[in-house]
Amino acid sequence: MLLSDSLQFGVQSAETTPKSAAETKKTPSKTDRLDINTASAKDLKAIRGINETQAKKIIEGRPYKRRNELISKKIIPQETFDKIKEQITVKQASKG
């Protein structure tokens, strides 16, 4: 007589564990956004869509009061701005 055990256990490894909502969030929160007034060229180039020339122009065009000044000052095209606008911010210098 042959007995089979049909009991199965589900084990998840750390790699297959469901991620929390914060980990899967695509749009950075306002605190995670890169400040274009203080970011280094390296940080700016890390944003998908910003190349070395554009990073240099962003730095040379400082200071900014609003993100959309990247368009009005002709630093980047509208299409690029639309892709990166959720990843950048402009923080005003504190008056002291």
* Largest sheet composition: 2 strands, parallel
What would you say the CATH architecture of the domain at 28-89 is? Orthogonal Bundle
What's the count of strands? Answer: 2
Unreliable segments (pLDDT under 50, ≥5 consecutive)?
20-25
Class of secondary structure makeup: mainly alpha
* Portion in beta strands: under 5%
The helix/strand order is: HEHHHHE
CATH topology of the domain at 28-89: DNA polymerase, domain 1
What's the Cα radius of gyration? 23 Å
Biggest β-sheet: strands ordered side by side in the sheet: 1-2
The CATH superfamily of the domain at 28-89 is identified as: Photosystem II 12 kDa extrinsic protein
Average pLDDT value?
A: 81
Overall 3D shape: globular
Measured between the Cα atoms of the first and last residue, the distance is 87 Å
Q: How helix-rich are the residues, as a percent range? A: 25-40%
Count of DSSP helices? 5
Indicate the CATH class of the domain at 28-89: Mainly Alpha
